[in-house]
Amino acid sequence: MDQTFIKDLLVRGIIGISERERAQKQDILINIVLFGDISKAGQSDAIEDCINYRTVAKKTIAYVERSARFTVEALASDLARLCLEEPGVEGVRIRVEKPGAVRFAQSVGVEIERFLPAGGKRRHQAYISLGSNIAPRQNLVQAVQLLRQSVTVNAVSTVWETEAVGSAGPRFMNATAWVSTDLDAVPLKEQVLRPIEEKLGRVRGGDKYAPRTIDLDILVFDEKVVDGGLWKQDFLALPTSELRPDLLDEQTGRNLGEIAQSLKNHSPAVVVPDLDLNVV
User: Residue 171 carries which DSSP code?
Assistant: First the structure.
């Protein structure tokens, strides 16, 4: 089977069991081989027919930077699962190493292979915005906890505090969650997101800018941007760009990282440093 590879991807993250390893990020070296038929791309010379190794690399970085696994075995298994959710990937070989972890050894680690089962269904990936300006700390934490009961939460961005849009209400706290799910977009919204909003006391009325306990919306579903506000609004662009800076606005040719930086230069948004939704 054809192979697409990412060689020597160096990322910093929390990995290990000792107090020192849990307290600070360390280098993690990752090598990925993606198995899949790339003959169509070879004939068409079109980027849309290729396995998107850039996306795989960006997702790997976002995941490792925000996860805090105890073992390289668990981290390798997580990354293999994420790779198998990518279009065109039928199998993956992952090598995860901790350089300098053992005295007199260059590195230690594991290498695993995983493949989609015959007839196996590829899971969907979505980026979901979370916003609250009524007891936001409590409601953001509870929203992520409830999301974890229905979908796989891969990573959550930093929490950003931003001005309310369309009203003089309290400032919002906003974040973006990257999730994997077996549900299509509409069932995800109706069966997961709306029930969470209702459980946390979201009241929908005539004023769409009214303060709210929680607001959950799908921004990106299977690499398709479904909310155009992502390119224009700081409370969506800033947190999402931490997870997917490579997302491309086809109308302007700019990626989300560039757009977010431009918005940040003219925005009163600030990071909330003491609220980490990855550990709730």
Answer: P
CA geometry: angle 28, 29, 32, nearest 5 deg: 130
Q: Give strand pairing partners of 216.
A: 130
3-state secondary structure of 185: helix
Count Cβ atoms below 10 Å from residue 110 Cβ, excluding itself: 16
The token pair that represents 258 in the structure block: 């560039």
Nearest to 83 by CA among 109, 108, 110, 51: 51
Residue where the block lists tokens 């003491």: 274
pTM given for the model: 0.92
- The DSSP secondary structure of 56-125, one letter per residue, reads HHHHHHHHHHH-EES-HHHHHHHHHHHHHTSTT--EEEEEEEEET-STT-SEEEEEEEEEPPTTPPPPEE
Residues 69-119: pLDDT tens digits? 999 999 999 999 999 999 999 999 999 999 999 999 999 999 999 999 888
| Degrees, nearest 5: CA angle 75-76-80 | 120
